[in-house]
Design a protein that fits this description.
Number of helices: 6
Radius of gyration: 16 Å
Helix content: over 70%
Structural class: mainly alpha
Strand content: under 5%
Order of helices and strands: HHHHHH
CATH architecture of one domain: Up-down Bundle
């Protein structure tokens, strides 16, 4: 049963990631440029536009999502499955570090944080066999959807 949960979670997240990252960055509007006014002053001194930042983030997230979809959740080694998933989460962290635009960095960080939380639940469910933690998958999947959608909207 835990393999089915892991398979469902990984497949869902991969699909969500692909859906959220499939849109190409469009030309930024003046509304997007003006929306950064609420950011702290020390972080607004970036020359990277939303379009430029999305041009970095979207291809990297798409690549990570594609790689996540290749994970075999039915693997005989649950720890290897989780380790592979966490490896791609690490790549998402690298993506966060590669962006200096405040808006895109915040949105990308939210996606990354949600994937980290999902990785922690997968560890509990798949490796530690804590099926009570499986109830958290619905909440975390919703969080991933929300943060990925926000990033997609910012970058479209």
């Amino acid at each position: 049963m835990n393999r089915r949960i892991a398979a469902f979670a990984i497949a869902t997240v991969a699909v969500l990631g692909l859906t959220a990252c499939s849109g190409a960055a469009e030309e930024p509007t003046s509304d997007k440029a003006d929306s950064g006014d609420s950011a702290p002053a020390e972080e607004t001194n970036t020359d990277q536009s939303v379009e430029d930042a999305c041009g970095i983030v979207i291809p990297q997230l798409t690549e990570a999502s594609n790689a996540m979809s290749s994970i075999d959740p039915a693997s005989a080694d649950p720890q290897a499955t989780v380790d592979q998933f966490n490896e791609y989460i690490g790549k998402l962290g690298d993506t966060v570090d590669s962006v200096s635009n405040t808006e895109v960095k915040e949105a990308t960080t939210a996606v990354y944080d949600d994937f980290v939380a999902l990785g922690e639940v997968l560890t509990k469910v798949v490796v530690e066999q804590d099926l009570d933690a499986a109830g958290d998958l619905s909440t975390i999947t919703s969080d991933v959807t929300e943060s990925a959608t926000a990033l997609q909207q910012l970058c479209s």
